[in-house]
Structure formats: structure tokens, C-alpha cells
């Protein structure tokens, strides 16, 4: 995944962000939803090490905490062909600190109003040639379902679209598995998107019953 046309985030301004190192497969984004739970995309499944409290992922920052995954909970109905149910919860040893904080999840299953301003962040590629080792962020807006179906005919209630209406370059995705943050709430998970807008995100509010069930275990 990538963030195109974004800018470097103020260090530690998104203390919920997690960097997921996947053995032999690269990396994904994720985010802390409880002291011992990280949410990401199911397509990021692999042998994962979680790094919290990071800004520059290539530096051994004192703020970083590294966690192994104790338990993987990939959504049982995740479909890699259609990217349906692209959501996963990782249980890890509890993390907390000034630079490591949780982000709230939606309280209800309702849809976000079209045009809602949101933010994506990640350590993805800035453009085709340059990867970033620092956390970048960019602003996107929620697309209407009606408009998004024109791009993605198989869109369903577990997906939401967001992108930039102005510049094409602003609208590509952040790190796969990272959060779509709207009004300080994690509303989506970076799932897929072609190289043009909009990106498709897993719609977290659609999965609240499953999330509650898994986190109770």
C-alpha cells in the first residue's frame, strides 16, 4: 500500500499506529484498539511482529515497544478473491505509555455521511520509487456508496470508500491494514484500491459484534 502526496506526520501524533513486520512478506500497518489488541487487515496475515510507539521505523527509537503476537484472529469469512471481510485482530502483550495509546472504535453500525473528512497514516510508499521509513499521513473524504459502486461493482456493506476529490495523487492508500480515522475514531481499515481513487476500506462498524466476541475470549 502507499500514501501518495501525503506529508510526514508530526512524530507520535498518532500514538495508536502499529507497524506490522511480516516475516518474508514485508510490512503492514495496524492500530491499537485495546492495550492488548491490534487491528489490521486479514490480508496481512503472516508471522507478525508488532512495533508500537514508532515514528522512524528504521531507527531504534526509545519510544518503541516490540511485541510478538500471542493469538491471530482472522475473520472466518475473509475472502482473498473479493477482499470481503478483510479484518483481523491480533492479541499481544499489553502496551501502554506516553507514545502508545488506543484509538476508539465506532459505537454504532451506521454509515458515515458522504464527504466526512478523514485521515490515513502509514509507512507505505510515498510514490513508486521512494519508500518512507517515517510515518506519513494524508487527508481523504468519504465517497457515497452510489459513487463508489461505479469503481467497484462488488462493493458490499462491509466496505467503505474514501479518496480525495481534488487531486488524484492524494487519494491512494496508506499502508495496508492501517486505520481510516474520522473525527478521532477508527472507522475503516486500508484494504484495497487500484492506483486511482478511491481506496476501499473495511467498514469497521459492520463488524462490531464479531470484534466484541473475539476480544471477550
Automatic annotation (TrEMBL):
<keyword id="KW-0720">Serine protease</keyword>
<dbReference type="GO" id="GO:0006508">
    <property type="term" value="P:proteolysis"/>
</dbReference>
<dbReference type="GO" id="GO:0004252">
    <property type="term" value="F:serine-type endopeptidase activity"/>
</dbReference>
<keyword id="KW-0645">Protease</keyword>
<dbReference type="InterPro" id="IPR001314">
    <property type="entry name" value="Peptidase_S1A"/>
</dbReference>
<dbReference type="InterPro" id="IPR033116">
    <property type="entry name" value="TRYPSIN_SER"/>
</dbReference>
<dbReference type="InterPro" id="IPR018114">
    <property type="entry name" value="TRYPSIN_HIS"/>
</dbReference>
<dbReference type="Pfam" id="PF00089">
    <property type="entry name" value="Trypsin"/>
</dbReference>
<dbReference type="InterPro" id="IPR009003">
    <property type="entry name" value="Peptidase_S1_PA"/>
</dbReference>
<feature type="domain" description="Peptidase S1">
    <location>
        <begin position="3"/>
        <end position="216"/>
    </location>
</feature>
<keyword id="KW-1015">Disulfide bond</keyword>
<protein>
    <submittedName>
        <fullName>CATG protein</fullName>
    </submittedName>
</protein>
<keyword id="KW-0378">Hydrolase</keyword>
<comment type="similarity">
    <text>Belongs to the peptidase S1 family. CLIP subfamily.</text>
</comment>
<dbReference type="InterPro" id="IPR043504">
    <property type="entry name" value="Peptidase_S1_PA_chymotrypsin"/>
</dbReference>
<dbReference type="InterPro" id="IPR001254">
    <property type="entry name" value="Trypsin_dom"/>
</dbReference>
Amino acid at each position: 500500500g502507499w500514501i501518495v502526496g501525503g506529508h510526514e506526520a508530526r512524530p507520535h501524533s498518532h500514538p495508536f499506529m502499529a507497524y506490522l513486520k511480516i516475516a518474508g512478506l514485508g510490512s503492514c500497518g495496524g492500530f491499537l484498539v485495546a492495550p492488548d489488541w491490534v487491528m489490521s487487515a486479514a490480508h496481512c496475515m503472516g508471522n507478525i511482529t508488532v512495533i508500537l510507539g514508532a515514528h522512524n521505523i528504521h531507527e531504534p527509537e526509545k519510544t518503541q515497544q516490540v511485541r510478538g503476537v500471542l493469538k491471530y484472529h482472522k475473520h472466518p469469512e475473509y475472502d482473498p478473491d473479493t477482499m470481503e471481510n478483510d479484518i483481523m485482530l491480533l492479541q499481544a502483550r499489553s502496551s501502554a505509555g506516553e507514545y502508545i495509546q488506543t484509538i476508539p472504535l465506532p459505537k454504532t453500525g451506521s454509515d458515515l455521511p458522504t464527504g466526512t473528512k478523514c485521515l490515513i497514516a502509514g509507512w507505505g510508499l510515498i510514490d513508486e520509487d521512494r519508500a518512507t521509513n517515517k510515518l506519513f499521513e494524508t487527508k481523504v473524504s468519504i465517497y457515497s456508496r452510489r459513487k463508489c459502486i461505479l469503481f467497484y461493482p462488488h462493493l458490499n456493506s462491509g466496505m467503505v470508500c474514501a479518496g480525495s476529490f481534488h487531486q488524484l495523487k492524494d487519494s491512494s492508500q496508506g499502508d495496508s491494514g492501517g486505520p481510516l480515522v474520522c473525527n478521532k475514531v477508527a472507522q475503516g481499515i486500508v484494504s484495497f484500491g487500484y492506483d486511482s481513487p478511491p481506496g476501499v476500506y473495511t467498514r469497521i462498524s459492520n463488524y462490531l459484534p464479531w470484534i466484541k466476541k473475539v476480544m471477550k475470549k
